[in-house]
Amino acid sequence: PTHGAPDIRNWRVKQEWLVLGANRVVAPSQDTAGRIERYTGRRPDVQYHQPEIMRPAIRPRVGQEEFRVVVIGVLAPHKGRATVISVASAARELDLPLTLHLIGDPQGEVPRRAQKRLTYTGSYHEEELEDLINEAKADAFLFAAPWPETYSYTLSAAMRTGRPIVATNIGAFTERLKDYHSALLVPWNIGGEELARQIVSYLRSLQKNGAGDTQVLSMSPV
After folding, report:
1. Does pTM surpass 0.70?
2. Inter-axis angle of helices 81-93 and 192-209, nearest 10
3. How far, in Å, CA of 174 to CA of 185, rounded?
């Protein structure tokens, strides 16, 4: 509505000329290309913004009792703010060996129930990101967006570390993590308590067994 859209269908009709009138249309993921084709009838060429980089897998240290999971970027609602706060709250209430650290702006006050398990840096400049990731000493990364990312530069930053990644099974996450050595894909609408349990279970399994194929969590979300 802030951009003058009374509803999504009229918005698409008003904007489709951009795609239909272009000499060439390029999308940064197969998922995005499929959505554009579904709306306009025109299939874009797919070209990732960057070449995919595969680093050797780094699993959580054997014997480590608490896991530190890093979230990157602005914690807006469409980036999974509610889910991240719910995971932090559940970790505290259930006394799970899990803390979250946000590299970015939490977009408002962090509720008291989540404060002991969720820390954050505040806003950062892009050139600072690599150093902030190194300083965070992550055991894994979490991408909790409940909407379809078109590509995700922050996912690229996480993949470059070689550390495990937990992400929702929607948008570009699914295809980009398909061949990643340590990834867990979870339902985009999974509840925070269940997600917190699954993260701990997954990282414990990596401690024991090492990296493997990307895993997909099939369940009825709570």
Report:
1. yes
2. 70
3. 7
